[in-house]
Design goal:
The structure holds 2 protein chains of 2 kinds. Chain A is an all-alpha fold. Chain A contains 13 helices and no strands. Chain B contains 10 helices and 12 strands. The chains are: A mainly alpha, B alpha/beta. Chain A binds chain B through residues 4-5, 7-8, 10-13, 15-16, 184-186, 188-196, 199, 203-204, 207-208, 288-291, 293, and chain B through 55, 57, 85-91, 94-95, 97-99, 102-108, 111, 116-117, 120-121, 125-127, 130-131, 134, 145, 147-148, 150, 152, 163, 166-167.
Chain lengths: 294, 323
């Protein structure tokens, strides 16, 4: 395959790879690049929390509870005297992992369902969309609570619970986008060249239906990180003492009048993440569209 | 020459809850190897539906093939499975679409799109397919080096050339061109028609040309079928139809072409509109607009009458002349 690729590019001449084209277009978009930089920084935090902060995020300093920023704890300490900076850095790992994993799962299932429903229509569409309606009818938080309550409180269950609540949105967005692409002439033309349904969906329909899905990914990611905090709020979130931004927020909720910084720092972390992913997603959507070249 | 395509009494209806649209009624045509047939008719006459019927791409629902046979090289295409049809589409029978602006996938490079159809039907390496794709581009008059560009970087005429390259990439035996020049401006129309004509001769491809432009037909076709309200009203070779049009509708069509040798203030259109295909009259569908219509025309469907060898008309006026 590698050899074949080389030969192909030898024939095509100075073909810029698709990836490089997309990168070039993406790099021109400054806000999107800013988003990417923030995401990279967050990923570095998530990958190397021990090196970038204290390796142990459970050390308590009960004499120093609710401390403000100082040289020793430069974002202060929480209600148990634990270093806020350490917990935010370690929390980055939990929040990003749960957010990304849940969006990934929801996206994979939702996009598959939506594409099949939108492309084939008819009975399949009806059956799949009624299932999606059922999912939609249950409030996300309630769904999450019942699943966590039934299956136990662990990170993988949490990811599953949050992903389940997102499938409906992905399926709906994909379906409507696929329906508009399905009836275009180039899909008909592809069918007239003898392409199979699977190939048409993969090469013609999905790439052209991608834009709203990308937007959905970024908004869902933001929503999911907040959802985790929602579950933490009712005590079904990430089990203690694992640090997680949402649970840090809800822990600080009761004392926010006296120690506002307790919610400011995790709040900023969540906001920055959500913001960065939104910028990144917008930029990516534009970069993926070859018509918007230059 | 051998028969490559024979359509017998093809009938296609669109069935919805409140009406049945009779788009194609008893259409019969034959096409020899290397021959071109022009399917002429106004908007909504059922030309495109016929083409879709040949390829087995009539959207179902609501489209239903009610009856008839489409015999391609001895096989009845209507009886083939979907998988067998896929092998024929694009490989043995290809189609050129009306609007090149929308017939290409905007997110794939044109080279990749030509390569797609080659790799779909022939087991060749990517490199080989790319080479063939670039050859095809050269053949339709576009530099092969532009294979890495996207459809939006080409003009309309160029896009139609790419569409033609895709259609001819696997060297099909039959090419269906559905109004290939309608969306193009006049100067480009001639180029594209020449291109289709040359390539057709080069590869000995048969052509089914769907159009509403009699000028285009005169330039390219050997045989002509005039379609009205889903029926072929006149069918014959080019000369006999152009020199000796029989059916009042054909006469009307020729009559509405402006004549540059005479000064005319107004064009001479055929009065009235085509009947609603969901509510076709019992008799001849053209009777309402026909200058020669009699009461009998409205009562019964005229039979097909052969007025001279290879030239047939569906009109009561010639019933007695026929053999």
């Amino acid at each position: 395959m590698g050899k074949d690729k080389k030969e192909t590019s030898a024939i095509r001449g100075k073909k810029k790879s698709q990836f490089r084209n997309i990168m070039r277009r993406f790099m021109k978009n400054q806000t999107a690049v800013f988003g990417l930089v923030v995401i990279v920084v967050l990923l570095i935090f998530a990958l190397f929390p021990a090196q970038l902060s204290n390796p142990d995020y459970t050390i308590q300093d009960l004499a120093n509870r609710y401390a403000g920023p100082s040289a020793q704890h430069f974002l202060g300490t929480d209600e148990l005297g634990r270093d806020m900076y350490t917990r935010i850095v370690w929390g980055c790992r939990t929040s990003l992992a749960i957010g990304l994993a849940s969006v990934g799962i929801a996206c994979a299932i939702g996009v598959t369902l939506g594409t099949l429903a939108g492309y084939f229509g008819g009975i399949l569409d009806n059956v799949l969309m009624r299932i999606v309606d059922v999912l939609m009818a249950v409030p996300n938080l309630l769904l999450g609570i019942s699943i966590v309550a039934a299956l136990g409180n662990s990170i993988s269950v949490l990811i599953f619970a949050i992903a389940l609540g997102n499938i409906a949105a992905f399926a709906r967005v994909t379906r409507s986008s696929v329906i508009t692409v399905r009836d275009t002439e180039y899909v008909e033309a592809a069918r007239a060249t003898g392409a199979s349904d699977g190939r048409i969906m993969w090469k013609y329909v999905l790439p052209n239906a991608l834009a709203p899905i990308i937007v959905q990914v970024t908004t869902s990611l933001a929503g999911n990180i907040l959802n985790i905090s929602g579950l933490s709020f009712v005590g079904l979130g990430v089990p203690a003492p694992t640090p997680e931004w949402g649970s840090m927020l809800s822990n600080a909720r009761s004392i926010m009048r006296d120690y506002p910084l307790q919610i400011v720092f995790p709040g900023i972390a969540i906001m920055l993440t959500v913001f960065a992913f939104n910028l990144f997603g917008d930029g990516l959507r534009d970069a993926l569209d070859p018509r918007l070249k230059n | 020459m051998s028969k490559i395509l024979e359509i017998k009494d093809l009938t296609i209806h669109y069935v919805t809850d409140d009406e049945v649209v009779k788009a194609v009624n008893d259409i019969s045509i034959t096409l020899e190897e290397g021959e071109s047939l022009g399917l002429v008719g106004e908007t909504g006459a059922g030309k495109t539906t016929t083409a879709m019927g040949i390829l087995g791409l009539v959207p179902n629902p609501p489209g239903k093939i009610i009856g008839g046979e489409v015999i391609y090289k001895g096989k009845n295409l209507l009886k083939l499975s979907e998988a067998e049809m896929r092998k024929i589409r694009g490989h043995e029978i290809s189609m050129i679409f009306q609007d090149p602006m929308t017939a290409l996938n905007p997110v794939l490079t044109v080279g990749d799109q030509i390569m797609e159809v080659i790799r779909l039907h022939q087991k060749v390496s990517k490199a080989e397919a790319m080479k063939r794709a670039m050859d095809m581009m050269e053949m339709v008059g576009i530099e092969g080096g532009r294979c890495n560009e996207y459809p939006h970087q080409f003009s309309g005429g160029m896009k139609q050339r790419i569409v033609i390259a895709i259609a001819l990439a696997c060297n099909p035996s039959l090419l269906i061109a559905d109004e290939p020049t309608t969306a193009l401006d006049v100067t480009i129309q001639a180029q594209v028609l020449d291109l289709i004509d040359n390539l057709k001769k080069k590869f000995n491809t048969s052509l089914l040309l769907i159009t509403h432009d009699l000028g285009v037909v005169a330039e390219v076709c050997d045989k002509v079928a005039i379609v009205y309200a889903g029926r072929i009203v006149e069918y014959g070779n080019l000369e006999s139809i152009y020199n000796n049009p029989k059916h009042p509708y054909t006469n009307g069509l020729f009559g509405s072409i402006p004549d540059f040798s005479k000064k005319a203030h107004r064009l001479n259109p055929i009065r009235g509109l085509m009947p609603d295909p969901s509510n076709l009259p019992e008799g001849c569908a053209f009777a309402e607009r026909c200058p020669n219509a009699t009461d009998e025309c409205r009562k019964r469907q005229p039979p097909v009458v052969e007025v001279e060898p290879g030239h047939s008309v569906r009109c009561l006026m010639f019933e007695k002349e026929g053999r």
